[in-house]
Automatic annotation (TrEMBL):
Residues 1-32 form the signal peptide. It comes from the Bacteria. This is Ankyrin. SMART domains: ANK (SM00248). SUPFAM superfamilies: Ankyrin repeat. Keywords: ANK repeat, Repeat, Signal. Transmembrane segments: none annotated.
Length: 331
């Protein structure tokens, strides 16, 4: 991994912060609210103005005393709506007028989690600068780093890590940012998280590690990055499956070959006694059968029901698999 400081490698978000920070220097205006001007209807008008980016209307309504954090029935404020609209000017205006940067919806979403979902680096920078909590989570347990990692927004992930986001945190399913990035093949974010100290062997509620998840999805480049970082090549999930068994079961030859080259044991069995070779047979992947046999997969092993890979081939009428196995009946 490169040892170049993050700020030097990815200066774009820092430059955005410098450029947009000046927008927050406008004085906070005193608001003398009246009973009429703070009505729910005017709160709705404020949110609508924020939605369409009408900063003049937003400013006028705030001058009339409409509460800057007036929320709808879902807890969404004008600031959140402006963030969702990728409207940096309105975001800056609302923040300068005292909008709560850590307000929450009924689903516990915050302006920062909305910014992460929409991938707006400049808005993220300005929210963090004004005190947005990088550790706040949605109701599903996702923090902004998890969201950015899931969607592969590497600049944002870099920014959040620089500001103290925790790469070891997990959501309510036990999945970390690294697992979410691995599940979607986000290799650049995977590299960033590994460099930031993400735990390679953390497990979700299904007992899966990032490597098991990447192998199951067939993202060989993520598999390679995780193995290079020291991930356990023969890790097992909650049902005893290994990365190799998962890669083979889903028909991912590149991931399977890489795992074998890195020392994956082709003869490990899951809780049902299933081997990678058996998976290749039942999923009709002849190329993977050949690959596994080349790496000394043992055709004589039996599953929990006493069946060999050849038995499974016969049951399925898979003549290609039967022929391949007949050439090497045991090892």
């Amino acid at each position: 991994m490169s040892q170049t400081p993050r700020a030097a490698r990815h200066p774009r978000w820092i430059a955005l912060l410098v450029l947009t920070g000046a927008m927050l220097l406008a004085p906070v205006l005193a608001c003398a609210a009246t009973s009429d001007d703070s009505s729910p209807d005017l709160g709705k008008e404020l949110r609508l103005a924020a939605m369409i980016g009408d900063t003049e209307a937003v400013s006028d309504l705030l001058d009339r005393g409409v509460p800057v954090d007036a929320a709808n029935e879902f807890g969404k404020t004008a600031l959140m709506i402006a963030v969702e609209s990728d409207d940096l000017e309105t975001v800056a205006l609302l923040l300068s007028r005292g909008a709560n940067v850590n307000a929450r919806t009924v689903a516990s979403c915050t302006p920062l989690t909305f910014a992460a979902e929409h991938g707006n680096i400049g808005i993220t920078a300005i929210l963090i600068e004004r005190g947005a909590n990088v550790h706040d989570r949605t109701r599903s347990g996702w923090d902004p780093l998890m969201i950015a990692s899931r969607y592969g927004i590497s600049d944002m992930a870099e920014q959040l890590l620089f500001r103290g986001a925790d790469p070891k945190a997990s959501d309510r399913d036990g999945r970390t940012a690294l697992m979410l990035a691995a599940a979607h093949g986000q290799i650049e974010v995977v590299d960033l998280l590994i460099d930031a100290g993400a735990e390679l062997e953390s497990r979700d509620k299904e007992g899966e590690t990032a490597l098991l998840i990447a192998a199951d999805a067939g993202y060989w480049h993520v598999v390679q990055a995780l193995l290079d970082a020291g991930a356990e090549v023969n890790a097992r999930d909650g049902l005893g499956a290994t990365p190799l068994i998962l890669a083979v079961s889903q028909g991912h030859p590149d991931a399977a070959k890489l795992l074998l080259e890195r020392g994956a044991n082709p003869n490990l069995q899951d809780e049902d006694g299933t081997t990678a070779l058996m998976e290749a047979v039942v999923t009709d992947h002849g190329g993977l059968i050949r690959l596994l046999l080349d790496y000394r997969a043992n055709p004589a092993l039996v599953d929990r029901d006493g069946r060999t890979a050849a038995d499974l081939a016969e049951q399925r009428g898979n003549q290609e698999a039967a022929a391949l196995l007949a050439q090497r009946p045991g090892s």
